Amino acid sequence: MKEPEIDYMAVFQALPGAVALLTPRLFFADVNEEWLRVINRSREHVIGRYMPDDYADRPSHPNAAVARNIEKSLRRVARTGRPETMELQRFDPTETTVRPGAADARFWSMTNIPVPGADGRVALLLHRVEEVTELIRARVVALSLQEAMLPAPRAAGRHPVAVRYRPAVGTLEVGGDWYDLVDMPGDDRLGVAVGDVVGHGLSAASVMGQLRSALSAASRSCGGPARALEILELYARSVVGAENTTVANAFVDWSTHRITYSSAGHLPPALLRGDGTVEFLDRATDPPLGARLEHGPWPQATTPFAEGAFLVMYTDGLVERRNEDIDTGLARLTDSLTRHCGAEAETLADALLTDLLPTTGIRDDTALVIVPL
Question: pTM higher than 0.85 for the full model?
């Protein structure tokens, strides 16, 4: 059977998004019609032009930095022969770019792909651009909703608690990570919880809000963190999407210098002592919510602390990495805590994020709570 002839020019024009072909020296070789529509220019003003000339005469323009980012990425791809997906780029509207009449900043996803020639060397560079402005705006709304569900940083006991929340970069949806701080009535005690709902999107954020509120109420009315988790599991059975949620719940008592804790399948809290040693609180762990075969009391354990220690609670985005054993991530956390022993809570929180989170492409949300003891 004779293979059909393929009109590659038609294929090129039909590619989704705005697509340009450049030489390894960054001169435009061809562009599709969507590219011309996006930049609001004619083909005669594009083909053969040197891409780095964009904003060369206006280096202080906000878009000039984006143009430099694109140039650097394309040159890396030309040099290495490896494709590269750039971080999202923000363009401010100008008289010649984006769509006519656009008044707001636009956000673009960009991919640079090498096209090899007959000798195997990079002959062309395919630069694909897709606008994701509406997705970013929806994410901002969703993140605002999620952050509104989380308690604001505030003093707890004699010291301020440091809290951090970092959303994933690789997804345009919110996640289900949360933290909570609960002042115990009539006592010098504080309840601290972190949790992680399976999935992403507004549904996960909604489940997160329901479970956080339920656990907060249960912690205020129960005798300990294990009993609060027992009540939370009963409540979670009526919440669609709550199954397999992980939660770590701890009560800090400054009058007795003890931490009482219980966990539903969550990574263990870390206790950083004044001498730099780290203890993981892992002696009271059961499966995630809804994963136990029978309902019953949750395990609970207690550990003492001395003044100058820190309780560190976190979600898996801080330590877990793909294709890596979790013990490796916990070892990184231990090393970072030890190296920054003696720092204040806020400084320690920033140091942990710097040490443990990737510089680009954060793939999972991260919640972090540090309580000075």
Answer: no
